[in-house]
Q: What sequence folds into this?
């Protein structure tokens, strides 16, 4: 593969204008496709097939076709001024005016007056009106939104405090805009410091942006046909930008190194793609496998996000292998530092800042104190991992939004006026087609559930037109994400056999609260198997790459440490509230259910990136005859700077999302940033050299029978080096078939 990539790099360098034009054409075509493609719908109504809440949701759609659970809705909350009641004549008139105005909107299906629906708190300080729309939130017109906002403003002018919950005016979480701009700006600073050249710093940024542009336009172009949306593209945007910068960085760094060894620009480009490109291909493949593996979790939306992100990573790999050497061909000397560009300064690693670098000094420090570094690193990560044992998964709603949003204020007002559980009612759908008296059976079931400890109230059952299904709600005393509410759901379901025997009917529990509980439970149960698959996969991949038994074991254990430590940090901040104020976290609570799965898959890919780029150079030195300790130093001499830069760039990109106002994106950004910090700087830069120093020659031991059975993957490009050495010895160049061309 190294020889093939070597030829690819030389060809891209030589045919630079053609390669660049091809990428411009690709970007233009997918961009045009994205502009012309019909708007994508939502991510589907089936979030996680198989769980009870989803089955009940589907049954409601089947038996109550007139009620579109996916339609936009708004819950307009009215709070009377201090000392007044919403039932006062002037306040009631303002509320009636709002309901009447909103009901006249063309997209409104119904607007329920709070005084007719008994939606007034006991002390009459708070009331709410429910507005249901005929269309989904994404299809709600600007005119309908403006109509609701104007009506709310008029009610506020009358003296009422009015807040709006629901989906009609809610902003959708997105991981773009300023967050990505912050990440790119920080990455640019890191690249400039690392390379000391504007061109070298700008090239990885340019190619990464082009790669993300191709990926995101492709997602938009295929969105309608494949059921994709901008939500499913969030992970692709975040990860595509990060790995796109990193992979280009590895190739540019190797190119600069080869130039300092005296190679001409075209030859240096070929060697860079042949050597660093081999590691890029393998590293990208591991990330793609980890992301595609999200499909085994069983969440359709998660599968789509994983596939989209895997596609973005694949595009990033192709860009690094083709567009990067093509652009190097256009500016072969611009990416070099000023010292190297001076006449007579092309040779010697010392001028490039390799010999005697900070990486070399750090490696020698670790080699002198391997036991202390190992114990300190393991103890530190182990302590940080302890909170992960208390991980609680859920799906934070309006209560997790900033207090500056009207949705959060509406949530708080309803909880204060009607009780904490009012914001998370349980929906019960009963299949009563087998009952002699369906209406009586449904009423009996509602009464029994009302008697359940922790249930505050139950609405009257509503039968469908066919009379074979009943629907009613139960309001718990506790809030949606509290442990007591989970206990109520379990209790109601545990009472099901007795109720079914008494009434001759069956029922299931759903609603947003029950759905979040079921999804969190299913994902928590899937986390350990998924983590196990990832660890076994890492063992197999690294066994093939490094042809060693102990190196993969060390890498897998380090990956586990970094994942658990990052989960512990997330729990400490977002669940326990340690330092939450510093990050702008206004409400702590359960961790988003999808977040740990994301973390495991993404960190696995990044950990393998750092492992390959760092340890591959160590193995290359060891294979060429260096002693184990010296091989570690050589690996750090050549790779430490670029791995550190890559990790800092990843942290910069992910940290940019911490500034997001959405709790979900903030949590993901923080989790990924600290995961990269732990894995790159503690595990790969400290624990890896310490373990290799203690193992010595045993680190590279592999049974002979296993050596024969494993396929050979030349990630270090040693075959390319051997081929070139043999060619040099015989006086025959390996690239004589290609005509010489001035750079």
A:
């Amino acid at each position: 593969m190294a020889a093939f990539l070597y030829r690819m790099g030389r060809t891209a360098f030589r045919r630079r204008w053609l390669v660049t034009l091809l990428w411009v054409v690709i970007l233009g075509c997918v961009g045009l496709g994205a502009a012309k493609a019909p708007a994508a719908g939502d991510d589907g109504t089936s979030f996680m097939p198989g769980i009870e809440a989803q089955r009940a949701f589907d049954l409601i759609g089947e038996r109550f076709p007139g009620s579109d659970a996916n339609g936009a809705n708004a819950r307009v909350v009215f709070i009377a001024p201090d000392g007044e009641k919403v039932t006062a004549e002037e306040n009631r008139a303002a509320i009636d005016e709002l309901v009447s105005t909103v009901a006249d909107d063309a997209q409104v299906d119904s607007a329920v007056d709070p005084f007719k629906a008994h939606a007034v708190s006991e002390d009459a300080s708070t009331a709410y009106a429910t507005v249901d729309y005929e269309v989904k939130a994404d299809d709600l017109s600007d005119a309908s939104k403006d109509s609701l906002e104007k009506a709310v403003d008029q009610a506020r002018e009358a003296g009422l405090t009015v807040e709006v919950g629901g989906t009609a005016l809610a902003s959708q979480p997105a991981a773009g805009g300023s967050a990505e701009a912050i990440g790119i700006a920080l990455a640019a600073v890191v690249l400039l410091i690392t390379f000391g050249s504007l061109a070298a710093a700008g090239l990885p940024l340019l190619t990464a942006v082009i790669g993300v542009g191709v990926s995101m336009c492709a997602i938009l172009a295929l969105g309608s046909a494949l059921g994709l949306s901008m939500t499913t593209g969030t992970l692709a945007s975040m990860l595509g930008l990060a790995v796109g910068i990193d992979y280009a960085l590895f190739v540019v760094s190797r190119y600069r190194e080869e130039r300092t060894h005296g190679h001409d620009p075209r030859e240096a480009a070929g060697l860079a793609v042949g050597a660093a490109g081999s590691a890029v291909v393998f590293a990208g493949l591991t990330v793609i496998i980890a992301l595609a593996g999200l499909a085994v979790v069983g969440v359709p939306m998660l599968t789509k996000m994983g596939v989209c992100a895997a596609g973005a990573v694949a595009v990033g790999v192709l860009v690094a292998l083709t567009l990067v050497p093509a652009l190097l061909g256009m500016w072969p000397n611009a990416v070099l530092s000023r010292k190297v560009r001076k006449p007579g300064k092309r040779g010697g690693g010392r001028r490039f800042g390799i010999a005697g670098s900070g990486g070399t000094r750090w490696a020698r420090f670790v080699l002198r104190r391997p036991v202390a570094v190992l114990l300190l690193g393991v103890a530190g990560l182990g302590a940080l991992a302890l909170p992960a044992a208390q991980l609680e998964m859920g799906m934070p709603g309006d209560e997790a939004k900033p207090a500056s949003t009207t949705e959060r204020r509406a949530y708080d007002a309803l909880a204060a006026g009607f009780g904490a559980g009012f914001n998370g009612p349980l929906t019960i759908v009963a299949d009563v087609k087998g009952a002699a008296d369906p209406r009586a059976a449904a009423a009996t079931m509602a009464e029994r559930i009302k008697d359940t400890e922790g249930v505050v109230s139950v609405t009257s059952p509503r039968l469908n037109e066919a009379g074979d299904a009943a629907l009613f709600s139960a309001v718990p005393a506790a809030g949606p994400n509290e442990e007591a509410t989970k206990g109520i759901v379990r209790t109601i379901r545990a009472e099901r056999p007795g109720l079914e025997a008494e009434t001759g009917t069956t029922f299931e529990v759903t609603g947003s609260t029950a759905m979040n509980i079921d999804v969190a439970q299913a994902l928590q149960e899937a986390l350990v198997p998924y983590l196990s698959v990832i660890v076994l996969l890492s063992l197999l991949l690294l066994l093939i790459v490094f042809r060693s038994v102990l190196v993969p074991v060390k890498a897998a254990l380090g990956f586990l440490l970094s994942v658990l430590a990052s989960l512990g940090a997330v729990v400490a901040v977002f669940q326990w509230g340690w330092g939450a104020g510093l990050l702008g976290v206004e409400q702590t609570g359960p961790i988003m259910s999808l977040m740990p799965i994301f973390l495991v898959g993404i960190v696995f890919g990044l950990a393998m990136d750092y492992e390959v780029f760092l340890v591959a150079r160590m193995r290359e030195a060891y294979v060429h005859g260096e002693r184990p300790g010296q091989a570690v130093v050589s690996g750090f001499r050549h790779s430490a700077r670029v791995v550190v830069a890559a990790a800092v760039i990843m942290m910069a990109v992910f940290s940019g999302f911490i500034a997001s106002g959405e709790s979900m994106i903030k949590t993901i950004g923080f989790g990924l940033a600290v995961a990269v910090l732990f894995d790159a700087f503690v595990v790969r830069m400290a624990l890896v050299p310490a373990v290799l120093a203690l193992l010595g020659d045993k680190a590279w031991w592999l049974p002979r029978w296993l050596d024969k059975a494993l396929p050979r993957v030349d990630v270090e490009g040693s075959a390319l080096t051997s081929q070139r050495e043999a060619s040099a010895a015989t006086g025959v160049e390996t690239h004589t078939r290609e005509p010489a061309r001035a750079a």
Remarks:
- The chain has 24 helices and eleven strands.
